[in-house]
Design a protein that fits this description.
The chain is mainly alpha-helical and 99 residues long. Helices cover 58% and strands 5% of the residues. Strands 1-2 form a two-stranded antiparallel ribbon.
Length: 99
């Protein structure tokens, strides 16, 4: 991934605040996506909740819909958050908003 670290962090922070689309990301943050390559990288990143374990947002959402209502339960079912743990805020936001 060639996305600048500062942009990567903006995407992850916005995800923790509920951004699930590029439009929502732009509304939450001041990120500037400069070209199609960055756009593709941002879109890919927005689909991923846990980079360490490569767990998608959709997988987390499905776990929550199936009853995983705490971070620990989501971690148990999906393994997301069992690496470095930096995705905890993203997972917690999904649990809280059920999306």
């Amino acid at each position: 991934m060639a996305l600048e670290r500062s942009k990567y962090l903006k995407v992850r922070k916005a995800q923790a605040e509920g951004a699930r689309t590029v439009e929502e990301l732009k509304n939450i943050s001041d990120i500037v996506i400069e070209n199609d390559t960055e756009l593709e990288e941002v879109e890919t990143l927005l689909q991923n909740a846990c980079k360490c374990k490569n767990v998608s947002i959709n997988t987390i959402v499905e776990a929550v819909k199936n009853g995983a209502d705490t971070f620990e339960k989501v971690k148990e079912v999906t393994k997301a958050g069992s690496g470095c743990g930096r995705c905890k805020s993203i997972i917690s936001n999904i649990i809280e908003n059920k999306r």
